[in-house]
Write a structure and sequence with these properties.
With 432 residues, the chain is mostly helical. It has 17 helices and no strands.
Length: 432
């Protein structure tokens, strides 16, 4: 079977028309998997903190679920990157979604038997689905032309919107369903997550053939050989300046977004908002994380990586200020704040993703992407874990201000990068 796959990948790699056809088919498969994966992603965002608060009897540790599944995502991101590098995207992404689905079902079981250690372990494993959902965007860029990379990544991301927006707004009906079958109300969304992640894994493993990363590696090796580059030496170092600035943009974006997003449901519940209103705010937030992607991707490809990264930092700052000064009982203000938060994250992730792809070669791309996604996940884990303590020690307003001010650091790093980068390191010139 492996030899047959390799032969097919070599055939496609040698034919530019076949590569273009595979790119279109790859995007179609990724779209299908991301619709399913988005539904699984939304469960932990919406009710993870509330479930922990209910089982632990307080909100000081309510940021732990976000930290746990983000730490799980960090661990899985490294493994998925390595498996993808050696065996292709199909196996790496399929494995990740399967693990995430099993973790979600473990959360349901933990809630049913009121077992906190099992809850924490299951949330950690559930994080594999989050990592896979994020890394699937790279599959869309493996065979994309340089001036279409951000657009290709955006197609994968926007597909997540359908499931991710539907998920939070199914909180109440899934809660009722859970009660009917004897499962705690807040565990209901994790039933959907388990089924959705497992289905996404099956779609990728079954239909992502031939593997786009393997085809890109074979095509890249042939190009290198023709150009006369020494064997085994990649044209770019694994951690060059472009990789570092891409990682900085995505990590800071993730910290600011996760910290504010994680504690918003707790803040809303503490001030009289019901689950329907919480689901609405988080659903709109997740929609703004993913739905603008098609427009954002085109802007990143046409306007440039650096300008869109700057737009991310500015938007995140505005989100933090709006959340900090929003009246506690004002649903419209919270919707605006969380919409800006999602939009700023979208700008940062897509511009950072394009920078990262620009700065890597197929021979090391997946493993480097996995390593950077580990940094993103660890940043999010730190933000999620600290959010509960910051909010308990100060307020939601203080937490939101801190998240907004953090985005200023990203603008500073982008200014530094623009000042010191050499002309031949200009990422945007590489996409011309």
């Amino acid at each position: 079977m492996r030899n047959r796959e390799t032969i097919e990948a070599q055939r496609v790699a040698a034919d530019s028309a076949a590569r273009d056809s595979l790119q279109r088919r790859t995007l179609f498969v990724v779209v299908a998997s991301q619709i399913l994966g988005g539904a699984g992603l939304a469960a932990g965002i919406t009710v993870g903190a509330l479930l922990a608060e209910e089982m632990l009897g307080g909100d000081s540790l309510s940021g732990l679920p976000s930290a746990l599944f983000t730490l799980g995502a960090a661990s899985a991101a490294m493994l998925i990157g390595r498996v993808s590098q050696s065996s292709g995207r199909r196996r790496g992404l399929g494995f990740g979604f399967a693990a995430g689905g099993l973790g979600a079902l473990g959360v349901v079981l933990a809630a049913e038997i009121d077992n906190v250690p099992l809850l924490f372990l299951s949330l950690f494993i559930y994080g594999a689905g989050t990592a896979t959902n994020l890394q699937a965007r790279y599959a869309g860029t493996d065979l994309a032309r340089p001036d279409r990379r951000a657009t290709a990544a955006s197609i994968a991301m926007v597909s997540t919107t359908l499931g991710a927006v539907a998920g939070p707004n199914l909180v109440e009906p899934l809660g009722h369903l859970a009660e009917i079958i004897g499962v705690p109300e807040l565990a209901g969304p994790f039933l959907l997550a388990g089924a959705a992640y497992l289905a996404a894994g099956i779609v990728l493993f079954s239909f992502l053939r031939p593997d786009p990363l393997k085809v890109a590696q074979i095509a890249g090796a042939a190009t290198t050989k023709v150009a006369g580059s020494p064997a085994g030496i990649a044209p770019m170092s694994r951690f060059n300046q472009g990789v570092l600035i891409a990682a900085t943009v995505m990590v800071v974006t993730q910290i600011a977004m996760v910290a504010i997003m994680t504690m918003t449901p707790v803040h809303m519940k503490n001030h009289g908002h019901d689950l329907g209103e919480i689901g609405l705010v988080i659903g709109i937030h997740v929609g703004f994380m993913y739905l603008p992607s098609l427009v954002t991707g085109v802007l990143v490809d046409r306007v440039g990586r650096i300008p869109m990264a700057c737009a991310s930092g500015t938007t995140l700052f505005l989100a933090g200020i709006t959340a900090a000064f929003a009246p506690e009982d004002s649903l419209p203000f919270l919707i605006v704040a969380l919409s800006l938060l999602g939009l700023g994250w979208n700008f940062g992730l897509l511009s950072g993703t394009a920078m990262l792809v620009d700065s890597t070669e197929p021979e090391t791309r997946a493993s480097t992407q996995g390593t950077v996604d580990v940094m993103i996940s660890l940043g999010g884990a730190g933000g999620g874990a600290a959010a509960g303590f910051v909010m308990a020690g100060s307020s939601y307003a203080g937490l939101s201000l801190a998240g907004g001010l953090l985005s200023i650091l990203m603008l500073g790093s982008l200014w530094w990068h623009a000042k010191i980068r050499p002309p031949d390191g200009d990422l945007e010139s590489q996409t011309a």
